[in-house]
Amino acid sequence: MKTVLHLAVSALIMGASLSVLADSPGPYTEFYKQLQQKLNDLGFDAGPVNGDFSDKTQAALAQYQLAMMLPASGMPDAPTLLALDLQTPDLEANATSPDENAAAGGTR
Description:
Layout (H helix, E strand, L loop, with lengths): L1 H12 L15 H13 L13 H13 L10 H7 L6 H4 L3 H6 L5
C-alpha cells in the first residue's frame, strides 16, 4: 500500500492529474464521493458523485477555492479540506500488517 501511495505522490509531483489515480476503486474513492457531494451541495458543479476525481470535479474545487479566497489549485489541500470540513482517509489505520496479510491468505 505504501508503494502505491509513494507512486501517487510522485505522479502528483510530476504534474499528473488525480484522475489517473482514480481508474480503480481505492482508498480515496469514498473520499472523492464525499468531496463531490459537498461541492455539489454548495452549488459548485462537481459532476456525478461517483468517486472519480475528474476534470469537472477539479474545476469545481478550484472555483470553490476562489470563492473562499484560497489558492485555486484545484487540489484537495489541507486549507481546502478544513474549509469543507473533510478529512482524507487514514491509510495507515486501514493497512494490514504482513502477518495479518499472510493469515488472510496473502503473501508476506
